[in-house]
Amino acid sequence: MLALITGASSGMGKDMAKILADRGYDLILVARRRDRLEDLANSLSVNVNIVDLDLSIEKNVFKIYEKFKDKDIDLLINNAGFGLFGEFVATDLNTELKMIDVNIKAYHILTKLFLQDFVKKDKGYILNVCSSAGFMAGPRLSTYYATKNYITKLTMAINEELRVKKSKVVISALCPGPVATEFNKVAHGTFSIREADSFNVSKYAIDKLFKGKMLIVPTFMMKFTLFLNRFAPHRLSLIIAHNIQKRKSR
Questions:
Q1: Is the Cα dihedral 34, 40, 44, 46 positive or negative?
Q2: Are 3 and 24 in contact (CB under 8 A)?
Q3: pLDDT tens readout for residues 88-136
Q4: Using CA atoms, how far apart are residues 161 and 140, in angstroms rounded to an integer?
Q5: CB atoms closer than 10 angstroms to residue 149
Q6: How far apart are the C-alpha atoms of 187 and 65, rounded to whole Å?
Q7: What is the dihedral of CA 84, 86, 91, 95, to 10 degrees?
Q8: Which SS3 state, helix, strand or coil, does residue 61 take?
Q9: φ and ψ at 182, to 5 degrees?
Q10: Is-contact 238 139, C-beta < 8 A?
């Protein structure tokens, strides 16, 4: 068994690598920081291939597919991504465009190419790490929320296409609330609500993926929050989201 994980140098990507290694998966780990990938690979007792590439560069995304398309991958986890706190009028455009490249284009390309191979084999799993943000708009974190909306809805649409065809390929969207990772450090802000444990979320996600769950929402509180959001007027939902994304100075 072989899994490819992007954003594997820290946070949920790193935790998912450990969980899958414990279950006997050989791994292909992709991230920008080679030193961290090497440290992780050395701590695992399975075969690990590390790739240090910046997925905001489109040609690098295609390189990953070309390099590993013949390796009979069983599981793809699209996990690389980042956010940026701040009002849209003030946030850096170049950073936002890079975010779109990583959070949307890299996911889209890898999902498309590996899904085509999985469908031909009629087997395989894809886990797209999305967010509860994928169901809402997010003042003060607007571009990040928008990218997660794209991937969440894309994953749901693909899941339905596969269901109609009675395909054995599984694609799932992981939609947690805030998770204790390096997200806040990179995004230059902090959430005002409690963050879930990264390892617990990662284990929950993998378990639900293998059970064929389309939308994976860890923690009762986040399930309840998303349920209530279905019935909230758009303006009320925006006010609540705006208050949650209170940026704190560093």
A1: negative
A2: no
A3: 999 999 999 999 999 999 999 999 999 999 999 999 999 999 887 767 7
A4: 34
A5: 19
A6: 28
A7: 0
A8: helix
A9: -85, 10
A10: yes
Q: Which helix (H) or strand (E) holds 223?
A: helix 220-229
**Contact predicate 130/171, CB 8 Å:** no
CA angle (151, 156, 160) in 5-degree steps: 145
* DSSP structure string for 120-175: HHT--EEEEE--GGGGS--TTSHHHHHHHHHHHHHHHHHHHHHHHTT-S-EEEEE-
Long-range CB pairs of 55-64, under 8 A, 24+ apart, other chains included: 55/6, 55/30, 55/80, 55/101, 55/102, 55/106, 56/98, 56/101, 56/102, 56/106, 57/101, 58/101, 58/105, 58/109, 61/105, 61/106, 61/109, 61/110, 62/109, 64/4, 64/6, 64/30, 64/110
Give one DSSP letter per residue of 89-115, joined into a string. Answer: TTS-HHHHHHHHIIIIIIHHHHHHHHH
- Are 179 and 193 spatial neighbours (Cβ–Cβ below 8 Å)? no
* HSE value, Cβ hemisphere, 13 Å, CA-based, for 43: 12
**pTM here?**
0.83
171-199 as b/e, with b when 16 or more CB fall inside 10 Å? bbbbbbbbbbbebbebbbbbbeeebbebb
Give 204-226 pLDDT, tens digit per residue: 999 999 999 999 988 766 665 66
Burial of 63 (0-12, 13-18, 19+ CB in 10 A): middle
Question: What pLDDT is attached to residue 249?
Answer: 37
What's the CA gap between 233 and 246, in Å, rounded? 21
Closest by Cα among 247, 208, 185 to 10: 185
